[in-house]
Amino acid sequence: MKNTRQRLIREDREHLNRQVNALYNILTELYGADKLVLRAGKLNALKLMRSRTIEERILALQRLIFEDPTFDLVPSLQEVPQVLKQLKEEIAEMLARRSIEDELEQKINEKLQQRYEEYIREIKMQVLKENGNGENAQTLKKLALLEKLEQKKLAHSTLDILRPANLNEIVGQKQAIKSLLAKLASPFPQHILLYGPPGVGKTTAARLVLEETKKIKGSAFSNDAPFIEVNGTTLRWDPREATNPLLGSVHDPIYQGARRELAEQGIPEPKLGLVTEAHGGVLFIDEIGEMDPLLQNKLLKVLEDKRVYFESAYYDAQDTHIPQYIKKIFEEGVPANFILIGATTREPEQINPSIRSRCTEVFFDPLTPSEIQRIICQAAEKLNVSLEPQIPDLISRYTIDGRKAVGILADAYSLHYYNQEENKALQTGRMPALLRITLPVVYEIIQNSRLTPYVTRKASSKGEVGKIYGLGVMGFVGSVVEIEAVVFPARQKEKGTIRFNETAGSMAKDAVFNATSVIRKSTNEDLANYDVHINVLGGGQIDGPSAGVAIFLAILSALQERAIPQDIAVTGELSIQGQIRAVGGVVEKIYGARQAGIKRVIIPAENATDISSDLTGIHVIPVSSVEEILPYIFTQSKLLVS
């Protein structure tokens, strides 16, 4: 019995010893043998680990597993199973925690490896961008297509060949060019507005005058001064400043899209405008009168400041990533010190007064028939063609636009070249030595273009009763206005009527009443005893009082049956006192009279200073009252009073 009991005790101890050894093996695998020894040394468990008694070894396990060196009580043999159970549970929890930690560490390592690979790829891409040129097969293919397109070129257009190459080739604008040169060649050049009809050389003159100014010693313009040209009708902009090709704009990093390296940092990118490109030179705006009024006001601010300033909600002055040039643009602006030259076909009154007050004005004259003829002959020399003698005169009858006249000649050249039967250039590719353009070819061009003679009314030396030429102006071009009148005795005394064009303006109708009052005052004739009909041929609307004198003379001629020479024209406002007042557009009106072949023009004496002293081809007569006019109008001497 005793032996059996001892055997059981021995077996229990061996079983417990195996469990303790298993726990030590687990700890060794968990921490490693060396670290486990170090851990035991720190917890004063090293001696207990090496003990021969199982109870002390279990105490060492308690200190190691719970990491508490205060475990001093050695468990009894009866307590050992319970202690081992606690130790097993704690080790199981440690192993579970270690398993989770290992799993997390594995995932972390995987993420780190992935991030590392991405980081390496980004560095490689950055290096490729810095050292490479961004080309690939597709971009190289498109580049080849562009280069192939560059090799295909048409010959120069005739308008390129015929465009004036120097100031001497600009016809009919001697005074305007002289004035333009004087204003730009000064050490203190001025902003300029150019007025004139289309096709008289405003744009070409501005470009050539700048080139001529660069050659003058002391000029404000350097040899590389730019000439930036833009058309006011095509200047489109966004009031929110999203785009503004004239003044410049700011591309934000979100909606408009700045460059990638700026957008990634949230940095706005300024885009400089034409005013900065023109810095130190000339900004030429054609049709400046067609620009948006608000944009004109913004341009005025630039003219005052000589700089352009930019703003953006995305700009942060404290951001250290902003490049210095962008910071300088936002904080100091960019220079825009240039001379503005604006060209327009509008009248001065239609231009923004603020712009007019900052600019000096130069007026380009309409081209006369003789000047159109000079342009045609000059263009024929450049095209190396000969003309029949009547061709320049023929073309000058159909246009006063120099560009249009040259276009008619170019069309005639092309048509004649195509129609020339003996010319073999179509097969051989050789141009003929000299072409001769004939009248039938020019007539064919005129018919195909549906052109009509510019001047349909021609003056004559014969006299007509009740008919006279007045003068009108539209834009910068004057024209003659035929005014006629007839007078009949009224069917009933003092019940006469006065009829006038319904389409005429209200001021012209007032001029009729003024004329009837002056006639009654001057002749003692009461027009209430007559039926008077005044007609403006063509039915056009007359805007202004300048037809007053012409209406008066037409009625007087019809009333007294006195003929008026048809080579004389008149203009002027008539007061009810018989005085002749000044009117506008006298220079343009005289031009229109010359176009119609008028020999004499009567103008108000107050407008005499408007006429150039070197005017030729027409006799200008200034008068101040109706009494002064009559000797020039009526051939036979007769007092006004009947």
How would you characterize this protein structure?
- It is a single chain.
- This protein is of the alpha/beta class and 642 residues long.
- It has four domains: 1-150, no CATH class; 164-363, P-loop containing nucleotide triphosphate hydrolases (Rossmann fold, 3-Layer(aba) Sandwich); 369-448, Orthogonal Bundle (Helicase, Ruva Protein, domain 3), CATH 1.10.8; 463-633, Ribosomal Protein S5, domain 2, CATH 3.30.230.10.
- The chain is built from 23 helices and 22 strands.
- The strands form seven sheets. The protein has a seven-stranded mixed beta sheet with strand order 15-16-14-13-18-21-22. The protein has a five-stranded parallel beta sheet with strand order 2-5-8-1-9. The protein has a two-stranded antiparallel ribbon with strand order 3-4.
- Strand 13 (467-474) and strand 14 form a beta hairpin.
- It is elongated.
- Mean pLDDT is 80; it is low at 637-642.
**Roughly how many Å is the radius of gyration?**
50 Å
Reported CATH architecture of the largest domain: 3-Layer(aba) Sandwich
Could you give a short account of the major beta sheet? 7 strands, mixed
Helix share of residues? 40-55%
Number of strands: 22
Domain module tally = 4
Shape: elongated
Q: Give the averaged pLDDT, no decimals.
A: 80
What structural class do helix, strand and pairing data support? Answer: alpha/beta
Query: Between the first and last Cα atoms, what is the distance in angstroms?
Result: 181 Å
